[in-house]
Amino acid sequence: MPRHLLGAAIVTALAVTLAGCGSGGGSGDDALEIWIRQAPDSDSAKTAVKLADAFTKASGVKTKVVALFDDFETKLQQQAAQKNLPDIVINDTAQLGNMQSQGWLRPVDKAKLKGGDQLADRAWQAAAAGDGKHYAAPFSAQAFALIIRKDWREKVGLEPPQTWDDLGKLAKAFTEDDPDGNGQKDTFGFVAPAGTKRGYASWYASSLIYANGGNFLTDAGGGKFTPAVSDPKTVEAVKWLQDQFCVAKTVNPGAVSNDTTVTHEVFEKGQGGIYLVGPYVLARFVKSIGTDKIEVVKVPKGPSGGPGTLGEGENVYLMAGSANEEGQQKFAEFAVSPEGQRIGMNKDAPGAIVRLPVHKGVDMAAERSDARWKVFQEAYADAVYSSPVPNWAPIRQTTADAINAVWADCGADVKAGMDGLATKLTAELQAQKAS
């Protein structure tokens, strides 16, 4: 394959990344190039290199891992413009529609993918586009739960939350009752990545929206959808969160501008005690905060019902235009195999790129001794994936902008904001021919 270039500055950065990770593939032009959306030289990037090296050992196919985090999609766009996409991309399930609609992906025949019949049906759903065809191999799954400062909860004398009312009371106590015992009023209940970058406000809100029986879209059948954001259950969830920002004031300051990178650090610094997040940070927090100080609790169902929290994960995408389609297929099959899944899980150590295994033959309890992972696994049984529209990315961004606006402006009327959002979503669905 020709060498993939991103310009001199990016090439230099990638060279440092690959050297730091110790890529077994080297920089040979014939290597299968694998991009993963992880910070360079992070624990997760190193796990990706372990996976690629094991694949090379098993198959003889050389690999080159490129770990990028900031502006990942923008850099893919640059490569697409040069007709020089990587061979493999490991990226969020929610990015499938965006990449497929631009013609970047090769279809995946579920019946011809070795081991495909051993993967969870729910995970395969996240590999399907709006046309019903699969454009990826499922690789990792996750659902969301509450990571709570257990030591703080015990200090304020409350039980793990079972209802939203319980959750609000716990957040209030964390904000007002000095749970860290330093004599200062410097803690908050919730930490939240509530900014608009990459649609984080929508991503964060979605678990509570789903937990209350709401949704962003309603499936009208035949690949057509209608907005559901002005439904009372959705409005109720967004309003409950606005009250946490504006009435109870239990959310960490600056949350409406934060992404997950900042929010992880806010939680680690002890500025807040409740984080609604996926399992990928559990091992990190065990190490940085202390295993005895944190607990994992399922998100309580809202006052209007369930079913559950956001379901998502990562897929292995086989990119169009590759000169090594056989190598692409082999890598996908290795990644979803029990061996590939176990390497990606990385046991209890930081850096898991397989959060919950998608292969039915992999026993998570046998791989991980930390029982808190089971809470996330149980939550996945009721998880809700994003609707299979042609392109979810602009819908997530549009909903993030609107939801962030009513959290940032305490005088904003949530129902009016969601009605306006429904109008915008109708226009977006029409543009995608999915209305």
UniProtKB/TrEMBL annotation:
<dbReference type="GO" id="GO:0055052">
    <property type="term" value="C:ATP-binding cassette (ABC) transporter complex, substrate-binding subunit-containing"/>
</dbReference>
<keyword id="KW-0732">Signal</keyword>
<protein>
    <submittedName>
        <fullName>Multiple sugar transport system substrate-binding protein</fullName>
    </submittedName>
</protein>
<dbReference type="GO" id="GO:1901982">
    <property type="term" value="F:maltose binding"/>
</dbReference>
<keyword id="KW-0762">Sugar transport</keyword>
<dbReference type="GO" id="GO:0042956">
    <property type="term" value="P:maltodextrin transmembrane transport"/>
</dbReference>
<comment type="similarity">
    <text>Belongs to the bacterial solute-binding protein 1 family.</text>
</comment>
<dbReference type="Pfam" id="PF01547">
    <property type="entry name" value="SBP_bac_1"/>
</dbReference>
<dbReference type="InterPro" id="IPR006059">
    <property type="entry name" value="SBP"/>
</dbReference>
<keyword id="KW-0813">Transport</keyword>
<dbReference type="GO" id="GO:0015768">
    <property type="term" value="P:maltose transport"/>
</dbReference>
